[in-house]
Each structure stands twice: as C-alpha cells, then as structure tokens.
Amino acid sequence: MKALNSSFRDPSGFVFQQDNQIFRVVNNSYRDNYDSLMSKLYPVLTQAKLLIPHTEIDFDTTKNTHQYKLLQAEKIPFISYPYEWSFSQYQDAALSTLAIQKKALQQDMTLKDASAYNIQFHKGKAIFIDTLSFEKYEEGSPWLAYGQFCRHFLAPLALMSYHDPRMGAMMRDYIDGIPLDLASRLLPFRSRFRVPLFLHIHLHASSQKRHANSENHTAKSNRKISRAAMMGLIDSLENGIKKLRLKTNTTEWGAYYEETILSDDYLAKKQRLVSGFLENTNAKLTWDLGANDGTFSRLAAQRAYTISFDIDHLAVEYNYLKIKEKKEKNILPLLLDLTNPSPAIGWNNEERNSVFKREKPDLILALALVHHLAISNNVPLHKLAAFFAELTSQLIIEFVPKSDPRVRTLLATREDIFPDYTQVGFEAAFNKYFTIKNQQKIEGTDRILYLMAQK
Amino acid sequence: MLDFILLYLDPGTGSLIVQAIIAGFLALAFYFKMAKNAVTDWVLGLFGKKRTTEEELTNDESTQ
Fold first, then answer.
1. pLDDT tens digits, A216-237
2. Residue A413 three-state SS
3. Fewer Cβ within 10 Å of end Cβ, chain B: N or C?
C-alpha cells in the first residue's frame, strides 16, 4: 500500500488506492482528534453532505502498531483542481469550507487546513474530502488555517471578481494559494473599501510583511482570540466571499447555442443522432470535450457520469449554475484548454496529476471540436487520432469540413495550409486506431457524425 | 547569498498577528449580528413568524 503522491504532508495518516477504491490510514497520533470528530461532528457534516462519508475497515493491528484505523472513503468519480473551476464553483468550495469550520467550532473542533484541494465536487455539490483535517479547538487559540484560507480562496475569488475570471488560472502557478502581497498589489484600490477584503487581504498582507522577520513577535502572536472573535472572523470571510460577483459579458462561446447561425433545427437533429449513437456505447465515465454549456453532456449523463470540459469560463459557469438549479448529480463541468491542458504540478511534479493522468474515460464526445484543434491550433489529423486513441476506447466525433461556414470563418484570415483536412483524410487518420461503427451526415449541413470504437 | 531574506521570511506569524489585531472588531461585529438576530426574532415572534436560519437552509438543501 503506497500513499498517493498528494498524501505526504500530514503525519496524522495517509491515503492510498487499491482495487480502484480509496482508503485512508489513521495513525495513533491522530487518535484523540479522530474519536472526537466521530463522536459528534462527523454525523453533522455527513448529514449536511459537507464531508465525504467513510466506513471503518477491520485490519491487523499487530502488524501496524502505529496505525489506529483503516477507513474506506466514498470514491469521488473524478478529481478536479481549483484552476479548473468556474467562479461559482470556486465560491461554493469556499463557502462549504467556512460552513464546515462553523459547524466544527460549534462542536469544539477546528479545521487545521483550509486548502482548496481538500474540496471536490461530488453529486453536484462541493464536499470536503480530508477527514484528518480536524483537530480539537481550544478557546483562545487563533485559526491556524486562516492564512491558507485567504490564499486559497479569498485572494483568487477577489481577483476573479475584480478583474477577470481567468485570474483563477493563477492557482496553477501557486500551489499553496496566491501570495497575499501579490493579491494586494493586483487588486484595485477600491477593493480596500470593502471591509472583508481590507482586513483579510490588504491588512493581512501588510501584517505578514511587517512581522516576516521580526524576532520579538511572540507576545502579539500569542494573544488570545475569543470564540466570538473566531465566529466573527468566519462571518466576515463568509460575507466577503458571498458579496463577490462575477462580471459577466458575452465571450466568444458564452451564447454559442443561443446566437448561433446554426439553428434549433440543427441542434435537435444532432441531439437525435447523438442519442442514437449513445445507445450503442457502454461507459462508466464519459468526457465531453468542448462541451460548451453541456447540452450534449446531459444526454451522455443519462447513461454515465460525465465530465463537461470547456475552455470558456462563462460556458462552464453557466453549466454549473444549471446543475445547481436542476440539482443534477451526474455532470461535472470543468475548465480545460486542450491546447494547453492542466499539467502535473507540485512536489516532484506529481502532487497534482495532469488531467490525462486522472480517471480515464471510456467514451469521449468531441462535437464541433476537431476543426478548432486541426485548423486554429494546427494539430495534424494523425496526431489528433493518436490523442483520442490514447485516452478512450469509444468515440463520438463530429467532422466539420472546409465547406462549413464556421471553418470558412476560421480560414478567412489565414492561409489554407491544411490539404489533408478532408473527410477522406480524417477517416484515414482515425482508421489507424478506430473502427467506424456508424456515420451519419447531419441533415442540412456538410457535417458528419461518427461513432468509433478502438481496434 | 542564499542565507538572505526571502528564504527565511515567515508569513505564518503575520497571519496570526492580524487575527489578534482585528479580533476586537470581529467580536463586536459578531455580537452585533447576534443582537440583530435576537431583535428580528422578537419582532417576527410578535407576528407569529420565524426567521429562516442558515442552518435550516443547509438542511433543506441536503434533504432534497
């Protein structure tokens, strides 16, 4: 049993994977805190669906004397990271963390970590996955995870709200959250007039700077923080985060389906064809690449858990808000730029996996996508076919030929250096890895939809 | 040269000290909120109504 690459910091225990299940070892050093968690807080948090449930598994205590418990945690179908979340997903992750801290304080416990990586999306909701992050709260002690909470949640959300939702991508560079001095410099001056941002980012950053190398700070840092001040701190962070809003304006793709020259009729026909193809697939996990607002992901989600990837922030945001509104449990929308996908980051470049090294799909939907990769990004068709073959055994893919108005737009301002970009060239490239099980022209267009299975 | 500034700076101390600095203000804000809730409850009580607490909102969501 080898600990996961992300599980090495906490001496309280570690996480490992076996037979596709997730287990957590609780060490004896965490015994008191674990018992305290299980006695009152665990039922409260799991009932509110804020903490991932687990079951205790029998194990041989004579062989593992320093281990106290073995837990099997409910498995999250797909792990995602903060730089892949839209604004509202990120905001919900932050509010869930604070809701947990509030409930913990009511039961005399506190979160010792407030990392954004401890939150995952499960059944349409943000849920906390690190069972060993709780410790007993002693009245008077400060919140040790406060700095981390501000770096991991408040700073990126404030930057996304004040500037642009794409600022969330900074979390890819700063694995332990955006440094507060940087956030403070990047935020506009008017952000100082919002009390929570003034206190928790600007004043916080200058306090960090002032006391960073002072040696006689112990008296001040040992000052007691009353329970009321602690509750006030959580309230203030909560208010600050709740008031942050996303500035919306239409983007390249935001209203793709609504404003498209491609009609409702086209959409309806394509939906019928995709539904028919889906009936001949068998998947546990589906990826919809270039999913936009998730119209087709919803068809796939009727059969399998579906990850709805898109490059556009507003599309992912809109998709997530729809999931919340309709209480959908089988779809997870995430941000992904296929021309520069989420890399492996962190210690030894293996703490957080690249998107392709997480749970692989059994089926990929690539609708109206290939022309963007082949023409806008110059990826040769044979490389595209190899890319899909590496990832999945089943593929529903749409070929959009040069005669299509959308491709004509892409080619309008550039030289056509794509002599192989034809239906024949496309089929030849994919035939190397896949068998074409079905192909249908989408009526009224030159587009062709394929159902393929790996050879 | 590496024995120089950045590597030995400790942002943790500043995070603890800022909590101590703003503690009084935050406690006051918390008491004010409690008082406001108590007054709201009393006024609503006169009309036989009840304030929906955050707790109830969360529970509603989780039972759906």
1. 555 566 778 999 999 999 999 9
2. coil
3. N
